[in-house]
Write a structure and sequence with these properties.
There is one protein chain. With 947 residues, the protein is mainly α. Helices cover 61% and strands 5% of the residues. A 6-stranded mixed sheet has the order 1-6-2-5-4-3, with helices on both faces. The protein has a 3-stranded antiparallel sheet with strand order 7-9-8. The longest helix has 21 residues. The chain is globular, with a radius of gyration of 35 Å. The chain starts with 9 loop residues before the first strand and ends in a 15-residue tail after the last helix. 51% of the residues are buried.
């Protein structure tokens, strides 16, 4: 692993700023030198060390080189024995001539080539000489080896060296031989003994090369040419400048973000086994048990799985920390996590299926876990069950009766275990178990087969693979069609997947779903009604949705929390649908209840969805600080699960909340992270994320990201956006984008019409207010007075809808429309917006309003346009109509250069910096331009539109 990739640049050096072998191997220097190479794992230390050795050989130096192995299996002084074995075998006679006879036997105990009286292999091996005596003898031998050419002693992976080798190395460093010797030491700082690290730091004249990250361009050159651009960006981001890690990630299976085909078992992860080379048997049990639990984990949870006694478990975890396989968690002192997800995957797949299944089952508290068969234990060790496991156990079916056959029992155990893993937020591990249920025997009950398919699809949904989830459910549907309950399970799962994906369910409401709504079980009935209500809300069927959701809300309010835990996602679908119906206060109440229950009982699979939904409604209600808090919570929960969809949706919401709170830096970073997560996907949910990010990137001024989002074709697909309840908000953002960024009244008007049609179907005040605001954006360029009227109507409507931040945006639109016509009116509207923002923590909007007030023109549009010549006014009008320079030149019979010259003068006279601002100025003085340019050339059709 250390040798992968290019050599990273030195981050720091002592005595030299370049890792240049010509400087390190000074042919004129006689004094010994020590070169220390350190850096994070897989950064390229071994590769750099070999480069130094190649240069040394080229310059005529003698070379002795070895890499340390696990100290537990190494003989004393093994590192030095391996390093000098070859060179001493070749020059034994020369070396012995320079070493006193008294030292021959001492050296021979470690280096057999130097013991002329060596015993037969059957003779007992004598104990090695003390380090002090051996150090003196080795210094004499090195003098004989160096000669005039000099010697480079290169020791790799010194952090794994045996104690005797470390002691001998310390002796050489403290009392170096009087010879031309360069000692090159490569090691991992976190894993090396403190004594060695302190000694290397204090040595005078030593040279330290600490490898830093490669640049993005250097890393990109390491990837295969056929790697897709979105995957390239993701891999470069995850590698963090580490070339070895980059290549390891690229070679990992697709399920782990790599390019290799998904393959069962350990095969894709064998390259990472070297990281565990120094781990003991107890350390392996602890690592495998931690991999079952997932990040983060606690000692108490490990004890439940590993069956190791407390003292041995503590030693095993200390060993994993020392080997830098796991690290302390960031959230709590008693939490730990793997250094990298690939190490966890390696430990996970080194277990056999039988033990892995039993370990997962033990984590749910269903059965006790026998020790892994590769380690001897007296028998099952009782353990205390974590709170989360008790709760998850309550979600799962009880043990089945003895009438079922072995095949069915094994199948049911896999389903129970897979469900528990999904609930625990470990979808990848769940699929490792549930994918083995895809070919059931004929004796497996249909309901159990449907349940397996439902939870397989749910795991895929958590990872953002909605198309795959839907195909899995479609495939199993014909097999379970003979059992109404089984068919209802599958059809409800199909409906949930379609709603999360953002695509309508083919065929609409099925008979099986209607059957579920007639069940006597209140949770089963409530779940079906909640999904159907969410479907109606998404489709804009407001009345039907409200009626269904009212029944669900009444049902859930009558149930206690303990009962709800068994089907907590009912609360999510209810709250989500109420938010689409603009009942934000009620939606927030249900989101808060669901999030509290999910967090309290560690039902990790629902936490990101509840927290993301809660952040959205809190933002609409103007509770900025609480929205930011919920956004961060959603991000933390989504990171634990690892699905791109959850991370992208949580990131888009957090970016918006961060900008509104005034944290532009966090908004920029989070928006880019979310866009990167969604980049490789062409799913409706990814378009939903990109459309959400467009408004944030526009407000933050991130033009580069804005162009990237537009280049994906998302805007073109938004014209047929299937979720009607989201169309007014989407169309309003796009109308603003077209009107303000591009000055295109035609496209802005098209999106305003889309918003109006959707709002007309929904008949909700918030949707109507956004449609009015979209129409204001449309008229802002060509008719600012009409824009002010529409924006003022939006203020009234959005106030009635209880959406304070949208009211502020409407006030700002009114002010922008009046600016240049009547600055006093514009400033009064800005003052109203600032009053509304006081005390809400919406510093992003406050800064925006302050900027508008500062930049408000002191002259009216008429006064500024009066400064233009007739030709300049003609060109300004054509610019406002959306014409390009070439179209203007053809219409006025001017050269392209002349048009550019006139535009420069227009920008200066109007005090603007873009064509869109010119168009806006012309629109604000529509009566001026209409009176003077009634005979202006007809505007040419423009193709300069947003994709």
């Amino acid at each position: 692993m250390e040798g992968d990739g290019a050599i990273p640049r030195p981050a720091s050096a002592r005595g030299s700023t370049k890792a240049n072998a010509a400087l390190l191997l000074d042919p004129h220097g006689a004094a010994p030198a020590v070169v220390e190479i350190l850096g994070q794992p897989w950064i390229g230390k071994t590769r750099l060390l070999h480069r130094i050795l190649e240069d040394a050989r080229t310059q005529g130096w003698s070379v002795a080189h070895a890499a340390a192995g696990p100290a537990a299996t190494a003989a004393p002084y093994q590192l030095f024995s391996d390093a000098f074995d070859e060179i001493l075998s070749e020059r034994a006679g020369t070396v012995l001539q320079s070493v006193p006879v008294a030292f021959w036997r001492v050296l021979g105990q470690v280096f057999p080539a130097l013991d002329p009286t060596a015993q037969p292999e059957t003779a007992p091996v004598p104990s090695p000489a003390p380090t002090g005596l051996l150090g003196s003898a080795l210094r004499q031998a090195i003098r004989g080896l160096t000669g005039s050419s000099g010697l480079v002693l290169a020791l790799d992976d010194v952090h794994w060296a045996d104690p005797a080798s470390l002691a001998l190395l310390e002796s050489l460093l403290r009392r170096p031989p009087d010879a031309r010797l360069v000692i090159v030491i490569a090691h991992r700082d976190r894993q090396s003994p403190l004594r060695l690290r302190g000694l290397l730091a204090s040595l005078p004249g030593s040279r330290r090369i600490e490898l830093g990250p490669l640049s993005g361009q250097e890393l990109d050159a390491l990837l295969p040419d056929g790697t897709a651009r979105p995957l390239r960006r993701t891999l470069l981001h995850r590698a963090g400048g580490n070339p070895g890690l980059l290549l390891a990630l690229a070679a990992s299976p697709r399920a782990y973000g790599g390019t290799a085909p998904d393959a069962p078992g350990l095969a894709p992860f064998t390259r990472f086994l070297e990281e565990f080379r120094a781990v003991s048997d107890d350390g392996w049990i602890a690592a495998q048990s931690a991999a079952i639990l997932g990040d983060p984990f606690t000692l108490q949870e490990l004890r439940s799985i590993s069956a190791l006694p407390g003292e041995r478990l503590a030693d095993a975890v200390a060993e994993l920390l020392r080997e830098d396989i796991v690290r302390p968690g960031e959230l709590a002192a008693d939490h730990y996590r793997f250094r990298h997800c690939l190490l966890r995957a390696t430990a996970y797949h080194t277990t056999g299926e039988q033990w892995r299944l039993a370990a997962h089952t033990a984590a749910t508290g269903l059965v006790r876990l026998p020790a892994p068969c590769v380690h001897t234990q007296a028998g099952p060790v009782p353990h205390r069950m974590p709170v989360a496991d008790r709760v998850r156990s309550g979600l799962l079916p009880r043990e089945t009766g003895p009438a079922l056959g072995d095949v069915t029992l094994i199948y049911e155990q896999r389903v129970r275990t897979g469900k528990a893993l999904v609930v625990a937020g470990q979808p990848s591990e769940a699929l490792d178990v549930l994918d083995r249920t895809s070919s059931p025997g004929a004796e497996v009950p249909l309901v159990l087969r449907a349940e397996a398919a439902e939870w397989r699809a749910r795991a895929q949904r958590l990872l953002g693979r909605y198309a795959l989830a839907e195909s899995l459910l479609e495939a199993v549907r014909p097999d379970v069609a003979g059992e109404p309950e089984a068919l209802a399970l599958v059809d409800l799962a199909r409906l949930a997947a379609a709603l999360e994906r953002g695509s309508p369910l083919p065929g609409g409401e099925t008979l099986a779903v209607r059957w579920a709504t007639s069940r006597s079980d209140p949770l089963a009935r409530g779940y079906a009604w909640a999904l159907l209500g969410a479907q109606d809300a998404d489709a804009g069927r407001t009345v039907q949705a409200a009626a269904r959701l009212g029944e669900v809300a009444a049902l859930l309010d009558g149930l206690d929390d303990t009962t709800l835990i068994g089907r907590l996602d009912i609360l999510y679908w209810l709250a989500r649908a109420l938010a689409r119906l603009e009942q934000d206060t009620e939606a927030a109440r249900h989101f808060e209840r669901g999030l509290g229950l999910a967090a309290a009982h560690e039902l990790d699979y629902l936490v990101p969805q509840f927290a993301t939904g809660l952040a959205e409604v809190r933002l609409r209600l103007g509770r900025i600080d609480l929205a930011v808090e919920s956004g961060h919570r959603a991000m933390r929960a989504a990171e634990r699960i690892g699905g791109d969809c959850l991370l992208a949706e949580a990131g888009a919401g957090l970016a918006r909340a961060a900008w509104i709170s005034g944290d532009r830096t966090a908004a920029l970073y989070t928006a880019r992270e979310a866009a990167q997560r969604a980049e490789a996907w062409r799913e409706p949910w990814a378009d939903r994320v990109r459309l959400s990010l467009l408004e944030t990137t526009f407000d933050t001024g991130d033009q580069e990201l804005c162009k990237e989002l537009l280049s994906t074709g998302t805007v073109r697909r938004a014209a047929s956006f299937p979720v009607v309840s989201m169309v007014p908000a989407v169309a309003e953002v796009l109308a603003r984008l077209e009107g303000e960024r591009r000055g295109s009244a035609t496209e802005a008007g098209r999106w305003a019409t889309v918003a109006e049609e959707a709002a007309g179907r929904m008949r909700l005040p918030g949707a109507t207010g956004l449609a009015l605001l979209a129409r204001a954006h449309h008229h802002r360029v060509t008719d600012p007075l009409r824009a002010a009227v529409f924006a003022s109507s939006a203020v009234v409507t959005l106030t009635r809808a209880g959406r304070p931040l949208d009211v502020v945006r409407a006030h700002l639109a009114v002010a922008a429309a009046w600016a240049g016509i009547d600055s006093a009116v514009a400033r009064s509207r800005l003052d109203e917006a600032q009053v509304l923002l006081q005390g809400r923590g919406a510093y992003g909007y406050l800064d925006h309003a302050a900027g508008l007030a500062t930049n408000a023109p002191s002259q009216s549009a008429d006064a500024r346009l009066a400064k233009l010549s007739r030709r300049e006014r003609e060109i300004s009008v054509l610019v406002s109509d959306g014409c390009t320079n070439q179209q203007i030149a053809r219409a006025l019979r001017l050269s392209h250069k002349t048009v550019e010259t006139h535009l420069g003068r227009i920008f200066k006279k109007l005090d603007v910096g873009s064509r869109a601002q010119v168009a806006t100025s012309i629109g604000r003085a529509a009566r001026f331009t209409d009176a003077r340019f009634a005979d202006r050339p007809a505007p040419l059709a423009t193709s300069d539109q947003i994709a």
